[in-house]
Structures
1.
Amino acid sequence: MAEVRIEGLTKYFGDTCAVNQLNLLVRDGDLVVLLGPSGCGKTTTMRCVAGLERPTYGDIYIGDRRVNDLEPRERDVALVFQSYALYPHFTAFDNIAYPLRLRKTPKDEIERRVRDVAEMLGITHTLERPPGLCSGGEQQRIALGRAIVREPVVFLMDEPLSNIDALLRVYMRAEIKRLQHELGTTMIYVTHDQVEGMTMADQIAVMNQGTLQQLGTPSEIYDLPANNFVARFVGSTPMNFIPGALQKENGKTVHKSDQFVIPVSAEMADRAAELCPSGICTLGVRPEEIRYTMEDEGSNQAKVFLLEPLGSETILDIEKEGLLLKVKDVASTQVRVGDVLSLSFNRFHLFDDETGTAIR
Amino acid sequence: MAQSETRGTATNEPVTQPVAMAAHENRFNLRKLFVVVVLYLAAFWTLVPMYWVAISSIKSLRDLAHIPPRFFPTDPRLDAWVTIFERRILENVYNSLVVATLATIICLIIAVPAAYAATRMRLPFKFVAIVVGLMGLVALLPPIASAIPLFLLGSDLGIIDEKYTLIILYTVLNTAFAVWVLRGTFMDVPMDVEEAALMDGDTRFGAVRRILLPLIFPSLFSIAILLFIFNWNEYIIALYFVNSMKTMTLPIAIQAQIPQHELDWGVVSAAGTIAVFPVLVAAFTLQRFLVRGLTFGVASGQ
């Protein structure tokens, strides 16, 4: 067990900067998800921790050891690859036993530990088969088994669930989280799937273009996004963005856009005056934070042009003068296409247009 | 009686049904027939000369000279074989075996790490392109272009007519080809699998030995056999570097059976038959491995 500390990690491939000045502390026993779109540097970061890449600048510590100059085998870190990277010429048993054999573990202990792990993962029946004859889910578990069996100090997972079907994925992410809890081993989990990130993580590190955007618990990331990138990236129905500017109207601050006039609290107006003097900012509001009535209540009216029934809820697609909004509603909604709704905005965020940073 | 009648209808019934499909199946069969015929023609085309050489080695002089040529010897005899063994052809076989085998092994020992470096070490792309490109060029060079300068160099060094000289030369001349082919083979193995071995605690060398090489073994074996055949058949370099029975390889020995005056086709044919035999064996083994090499997939999550 160990914490992982990344300090000022920078990685260049030729002239391309893959990771830029990344600082990250993964506490002992935590499950930290590196979340971001493809090419954001999350995998590179993980590979630097693994020892498969050398950092251009910066330091990586596992426990108290600075590991920059250590070979992967000296770091006691296990990595589960996106492709599983099983050894096709070995049986499942030999795949799982491989790290133990390299450590010259006695034969009977190998036998016992491999069987234990296989039982824990429910793959005992596959042990004598080569991975090519196992299903995708079984291959995935074999890869997990190979990582678990040697009891490393840190687990690294590189999008391990992206190659299995959606149903199994929902099941496996709970399974991985349970395993991590039971073993109490620090885990860094890389994914581009924000649902995976939200459901599994103790802490999420959102990355974009090689830089860390925000580090926080899933609810912090969701409720208090640090900037418009995080706000946009997290949430299965994406956040709505309304570009506009802050103005004074009748002594009160409002966010005025081409479509809407939205009152801003005095507290938020003060912060905005300090942080974003120009007042030009985009208002972001999650689909579940928009309320509506069918009555005519002032200017914030818009027309429904599409319903997306999801079974457990319905998404209303609303349009006003070229601006599209998504509003979450109950499954049994009475709203029909063509209805005109009066909208009110419950909780929202303001993002400085110049920097993208949240004003709060 | 009743029993045989029911049996009769029972066998008749299934016959009528496939009739409807017959037209479709026929077309398929015609296509297949065409392919088979072409393959047989190609095989015939290739094998007839070998058959001719083999059969000529046991023909009597009269059969050899007969016009039109005889496809079956009327009076088979082993005179030519006795002669060729008297002329110590087995020593030539031994020379060829030693030279071809050692040159193949040494060539692979050099080419495998070179190809590994070219594919795995993340060297600057331009560097790899230039080096591998140059090697490809060497591989394509006609051997006669290098034979004469090499001979001059060899005689200056005083290493003409030595087996090890042939081994060194064959190794050098084939390395480019071997690296070229091995590089493609290595690129087919995903980096992940080797990296997994590193993560599991293996050294780089261990990952190559325990994971990479076993995975590409069928291809490696195929390349080894190809190299062996190249070396076994090599003539032009040997022509310059062989002066005595001590180093004489088979291709040169065959040529040596053609004397100034009286040409004994039987003896030449017997020598030729001996030379062809290991190549045939190699080719059959190679074929089995080539098929395996193609179907030996590396498991991935997809």
2.
Amino acid sequence: MPSIPSLLPMSRREAMLGLAAAGLCGQARAAETESIAFDGLYKSFGVLGFEFSDRVTALRGHEVRMLGYMAPPLKAESRFFVLTREPLAICPFCQSDADWPVDIVVVFMKNETAMVSAGRKVAVTGRLEIGSATDVETGFVSQIRIVDAGFTLA
Amino acid sequence: MQAQRLLIMTVAGSLAAAAPAAAQTIYPINRAEILEGSHFDFKVEFPDAPASADVKVTINGKSADEVFGKPTTFLQNEEGQKHSALWLRGASLPAGSYTVEATQGADRKATVKWEVFATAQPRRAKNVILFIGDGMSVANRTAARILSKGLVEGRYNGELAMDDMSDMALISTSGTDSVVTDSANAAHAYTTGHKSCVNALGVYCAKNALTLDHPKVETIAELVKRKTGMAVGVVTNSEIEDATPASMVAHTRRRSDFNDIVRMFYDVKPDVIMGGGSPNFLAKTTPGSKRTDGEDFIAKFKEAGYTLVTTKAEMNAAVAGGSKKLLGLYNTGNIDGAFDLRLAKKGTTSKFPDQPDVVEQTKAAIAMLKGNPEGFLLMVESARIDKYSHSLDWERSVFDTIMLDNAVKVAKDFAGDRNDTLIIVVPDHAHPISIIGTYDDDRPGQLLRDKLGVYAESAVPNYGPVDADGYPTDVDTSRRLAVVYGSYPDTCDTGRPAMNGERVPAVKGPDGKTNIANEKDCTGPLAARKTGNLPFDANSGVHSADDVILTAMGPGAEKFRGHKPNTYVFRVMAESLALGGK
């Protein structure tokens, strides 16, 4: 997906994003794509860590679709963003004393992509990865990721 | 006329030539009050990277090496930067007045003065309990009294435990770099007696590139552990790595260094550590970890003899079982506040159904610490008074003020007639929060402003009856306090408590920078849209520089009177515990 100049008015930019992303991954993959949700991610969730649910563990390496909210991105165009259960008002990247919720999913896009307004609900489609990984570029540690991903507004 | 102007220009010109572009900076800074025998890093930064032969540092006219009795280190172009630095890590001094002079070349000189203070023997307090109401402003106390005790014909039906104390002072909170402080710098003043800058804990803010390299000063928990047999407790309902609890153990320029702060807790080893924020204790291979390394601090604390508890039931069992070292981590983030624990049941109460509140934690901490024959130092923070005021969620902020007051009551009951326990209750900074009247749904009109009764029409609220712990059982009633904040982003005021979860006043706008009103709050029957008065990148209310009220009782408390800087709180604790001396 080509990056979109950030000078475009938001409504048009969002519309274009929606169309572009839908064309890219929406229809073609719909048949074999399994949906997962924040509510079904974990088998147990406690102070000392959590365990992914059996279904999510079984979907490792498969194409999945997931709804969530785009956290405030570090910059307007990025290769990755953080998907959260609830809309985040703050930008933990930007604020020294702000912190991420524990149950986040990190989304790595196929290409550097223009982000939409933070707090927008998005549907992400991509390949599910599970296990501790540290992003080389940012040092960001994640436990669950959707990679080679695209998104549409939801 | 022309001659006069020329003269002025000449004088100005010669002044400019004489004054250096930048002066040397000396740490500790001018007017520092330093506890005799406490450890601090001495650093002088020289601009323009001079060689060691071009600089000279004296203390009371003698060489720094001679006065400290240890050799200093000189680094030209420190870290490749355009300054040179003279260092002595871990310096200490006997009591006295000190004048430090740093000269560079022929005409560049900086001077600071330090007071190194002794503490009188014998030690007057066996125990010190420091309560910090984070961001607790005067209106928090007033509202807590109205909600908890009731107001009839202008008189309260009871006193708050924190108000009913023998001594009081007005405390100023500004830091070295700014009028308005943050919780790191503010708590640092209480735990080290030094002023510092925003986001700093246990360090002065020098030119060092790495956050952990800045010049350190010793914290009261470190002093107590190094010099006495006292036990130490750190209790909060925020993440344990958050600024206020971290100020007991941490040395970093950046308060968000949570993973380092966990290691610093481990290094100092307070006997009782309780709060939220477990993910930074877990090795990064554990799902749910926020560490970036493989260190497993849960295992390390256990190996060091700590009992690990993750629920209120486990905490109480550990106390009953006689545990003396306890690591209590009750939430991955902040522990839920009293409003959600008791009334709304929102936040993370369903995910973590057995979290202790600050009162229960305080009871448990005192029960574990009180057996130590050498006494104890306990810091208790009610952290979310501040966090909820940032969210402009005053009901939650005031419920946590009542919770702090109940914890103070626990400490007062312990102190009783012992006369060996100094209890201090103090906010770290203020928020611009005020009570301006009451909203009454029965007043005519459709707008929030129509419902506001001021002066003669500010009728007493009709909140539900208070429970045994002093919390109203219903606050979503027809006549409510009108509490306003003086700083806000674009937001909508509902004029009602947020029963469905903590208020979110603003969200990021389309440009990713500007914050705009959270439309969820803009649709209610009374919702009033407010244009923000803060910079556009602010998403919540900010701290204010207003002084805060300290109350205290017990040995040493009588020193609190009039107006004092926040560093004075450290001094009174150090004097009561006689922490001075080599």
